[in-house]
């Protein structure tokens, strides 16, 4: 309770409540994430239950249209699936991929940056050159390369089973250099401070000093980058799924729903792709706005 009280009395909470855009973004993000997490319980339909689908319900427009059905608020797709329910279930996959990819990037990037900044010398040179080489390749290109290699190396049914994990690995592996470079710079500053020198004097090992002393003091920028990278990871997953190399059709994400609806966009069934696209924009924009606020709130020069 004391920790909660201190949080509500902190400068961070004061900055949050004084920024209307941030408050609105937080509410929108909470609604999007809550709707995705609770989709099995609050979604009007289960769009992936084949026994409940009716092809006669296909291509129904939104409920407010003259030909709309009140049971399908945002209409249905080519298979009779409720678009609203499909968006809620698809957001679950997009958020899962984005979150796990960011976690992977944080683990790889923080580990590399901490080792490079504290140890220096050859370790620093090798790790940073690897990061520089990685930065010359676009995220989508690396993800396509990894997906292509796994498709060629594994049978199709096996690849379909692990496709979700392949996408997570591809995106996570592509974004770690930004964390590594940030943590390296902060670590190079922290390693020369008195508390680190004191830890060396009392005989603590390098590993323990890095993990227990330096790491907690370099995590502030990591939190900001992770928040911003979450939006980028969701967009990367949506792009890969739109290109047909992301998650399998049995686990459609927002990108998959947009790709499916794009086939019917010019035939008049605009709602199949427009509403998933709006959901993707709202989700990423709200997360990015929260990341921008967090970056400014944690920057002492802007206080």
TrEMBL record:
Q: Where is the ABC transmembrane type-1 domain?
A: 91-291
Kindly name one Pfam family recorded for this protein: BPD_transp_1
Gene3D superfamilies, alphabetized: MetI-like
Recorded GO cellular component terms are: plasma membrane
* GO annotation terms (biological process): transmembrane transport
Give the location in the cell: Cell membrane
Q: What InterPro entries has UniProt attached to this entry?
A: BP-dependent_transpt_permease, MetI-like, MetI-like_sf, OppC_N
User: Per the UniProt record, which residue ranges are transmembrane?
Assistant: 21-43, 93-119, 131-150, 162-183, 214-236, 270-294
Membrane topology annotation:
Multi-pass membrane protein
| Keyword entries, A-Z | Cell membrane, Membrane, Transmembrane, Transmembrane helix, Transport
Q: Which family does it belong to?
A: Belongs to the binding-protein-dependent transport system permease family.
> What is the protein's given name?
ABC transporter permease
Organism of this sequence: Falsiroseomonas bella
Organism placement in taxonomy: Bacteria, Pseudomonadati, Pseudomonadota, Alphaproteobacteria, Acetobacterales
């Amino acid at each position: 309770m004391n920790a909660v009280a201190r949080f509500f009395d902190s400068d961070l909470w004061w900055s949050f409540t004084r920024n209307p855009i941030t408050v609105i973004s937080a509410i929108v993000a909470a609604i999007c994430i809550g709707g995705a997490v609770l989709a099995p319980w609050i979604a009007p339909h289960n769009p992936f239950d084949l026994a409940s689908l009716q092809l006669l319900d296909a291509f129904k427009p939104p409920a407010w249209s003259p030909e709309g059905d009140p049971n399908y608020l945002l209409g249905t797709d080519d298979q009779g699936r409720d678009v609203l329910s499909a968006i809620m279930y698809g957001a679950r996959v997009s958020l899962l991929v984005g979150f796990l990819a960011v976690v992977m990037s944080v683990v790889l990037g923080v580990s590399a940056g901490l080792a490079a900044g504290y140890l220096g010398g050859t370790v620093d040179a090798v790790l940073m050159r690897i990061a520089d080489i990685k930065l010359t390749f676009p995220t989508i290109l690396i993800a396509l390369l990894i997906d292509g290699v796994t498709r060629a190396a594994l049978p199709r049914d096996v690849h379909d089973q692990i496709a979700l994990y392949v996408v997570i690995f591809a995106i996570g592996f592509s974004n770690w250099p930004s964390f590594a470079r940030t943590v390296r710079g902060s670590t190079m500053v922290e390693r020369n401070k008195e508390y680190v020198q004191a830890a060396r004097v009392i005989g603590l090992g390098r590993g323990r000093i890095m993990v227990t002393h330096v790491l907690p003091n370099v995590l502030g920028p990591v939190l900001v980058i992770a928040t911003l990278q979450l939006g980028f990871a969701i967009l990367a997953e949506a792009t890969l799924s739109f290109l047909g190399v992301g998650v399998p059709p049995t686990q459609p994400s927002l990108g998959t729903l947009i790709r499916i609806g794009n086939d019917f966009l010019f035939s008049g069934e605009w709602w199949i792709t427009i509403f998933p696209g709006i959901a993707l924009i709202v989700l990423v924009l709200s997360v990015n706005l929260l990341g921008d606020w967090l970056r400014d709130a944690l920057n002492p020069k802007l206080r």
